[in-house]
Amino acid sequence: MKLAANLSWLYTEFDFLDRIRECAHDGFKYAECMFPYEHCAELLRDRALEAGVQWVLINAPAGDWGQGDRGLASSPARRNEFKRSIEVAVNYAKVLGVRKVHVLAGAVDLSDDRGMRAAWDCYEENLLWLASTMKNEPIDWLIEPINRFDVPGYLLNRQADAHELLIRLNQPNLGVQMDLYHCLRTEGEVLKALDRYLPSGRVKHMQLAGVPHRDEPGVNEYVAVYDRLTVLGYSGHIGCEYRPKAGTRDGLGWIRSTGFSGTMESSET
Questions:
Q1: Residue ranges of E strands in the chain
Q2: Predicted TM-score of the model (pTM)
């Protein structure tokens, strides 16, 4: 297990480019972010190299976030925009050395049965196109179930649906990003979910946050999570994607109290 600081959520008391240095100061060797596209990829690469931090995950562009877009992959009217977003993401991933890219599905009108069917069909077709087009790139393209409390109408919200979809598509460069916060909010029994899905090999990245407020991970949930991940032999990255209650640095005590303190400086495998 290797903890990664999500710099879209942590260290927001600093300018974005300075967050790389600040997370390194606290011992993080890995970083991820939602959307790096406001900054030159070469600059982000160089700042990380200077700090001794490795970028491990980004999201593909997801449309106009400020106007409510939460992904492009399930929108039949935006197929070309989706394909262009993948081109942008792969170019950034190459420069940053990132091998995991999250592709957001998007939000839909859950009351529109015909629209829902069209969205699912489009989602599958876009993922198949993505897997085929990018088969020679050393990148895992990830889908993530996201709870509908935080993102109303998000198409993909359950772990089982994500795994059933990937089994059906059967593409080696597609995987699941298992965010334990979203899993806890939607389904509750996260330890059973870990037992069921980690052995499949389809979970290629994880994230965590406290429930229900998406703040620092709590001892009650995450001591057991740490123990279970250890038993199951998970060796991938775990993104710290939460909203600190106060300053980021003041809230990092959870890493020690939950058992994760030995997972920040592990060497890459």
A1: 2-6, 30-32, 54-59, 100-102, 140-143, 174-179, 203-208, 237-240
A2: 0.95
Residue the block writes with tokens 């009351």: 111
CB 197 within 8 A of CB 236: no
Active site residue 268: no
**Strand, helix or coil for residue 163:** helix
Q: Indicate left, alpha or beta for 40 from its phi (over 0: left) and psi (-120 to 50: alpha).
A: beta
The rounded distance, in Å, linking the Cα atoms of 8 and 44 is 13
β-sheet bridge partners, residue 105: 71
Residue of 32, 144, 216, 221 with catalytic role: 144
175 phi, psi to nearest 5 deg: -150, 180
**Active site includes 241?**
yes
- 22, 32, 216, 241: the catalytic one is 241
Query: Tens-of-pLDDT digits for all 269 residues of the chain?
Result: 999 999 999 999 999 999 999 999 999 999 999 999 999 999 999 999 999 999 999 999 999 999 999 999 999 999 999 999 999 999 999 999 999 999 999 999 999 999 999 999 999 999 999 999 999 999 999 999 999 999 999 999 999 999 999 999 999 999 999 999 999 999 999 999 999 999 999 999 999 999 999 999 999 999 999 999 999 999 999 999 999 999 999 999 999 999 998 777 543 32
Q: Which residues are paired to 269 by β-bridges? A: none
